[in-house]
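Priority: medium. Attachment 1 of 2:
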């Protein structure tokens, strides 16, 4: 237990929270780079919250094998986000049209059997086309309603 004199000199420090998805944090604009704020266009002000989605450009598209009990070739992409950070993102659904220099939208959401993959690419936005022939759970995969 701290003495009163120690508390007067130092005081209690607040506990720092952890950030689960660092890639979705903070804009890299020159003016607000040091402040680490994001611009919220609805409230017309800069906030310290992270973003739900972020745009990025694919650097490489490749496959990776999952952790132990599972066996597959999972499709992943290395993405450079608009805040200059590089992340590894999972490409959901069967088949994709992504290649190097494709512009994609990235959201949070990890793959438990892929180490270091904490993000997923949103299908049906920018260059990532929706999954062809998808009839159920279409909104997750950016598929249009079949005629």
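Attachment 2 of 2:
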């Amino acid at each position: 237990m701290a003495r009163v004199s120690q508390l007067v000199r130092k005081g209690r420090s607040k506990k720092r929270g952890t950030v689960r998805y660092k890639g979705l944090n903070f804009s890299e604009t020159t003016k607000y780079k040091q402040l680490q704020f994001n611009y919220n266009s609805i409230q017309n002000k800069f906030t310290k919250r992270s973003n739900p989605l972020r745009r990025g450009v694919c650097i490489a598209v490749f496959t990776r094998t999952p952790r132990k009990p599972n066996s597959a070739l999972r499709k992943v992409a290395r993405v450079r986000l608009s805040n200059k950070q590089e992340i590894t993102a999972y490409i959901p659904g069967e088949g994709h049209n992504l290649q190097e220099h494709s512009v994609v939208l990235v959201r949070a959401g990890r793959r438990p059997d892929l180490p270091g993959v904490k993000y997923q690419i949103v299908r049906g936005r920018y260059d990532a086309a929706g999954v062809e022939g998808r009839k159920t759970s279409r909104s997750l995969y950016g598929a249009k309603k079949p005629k």
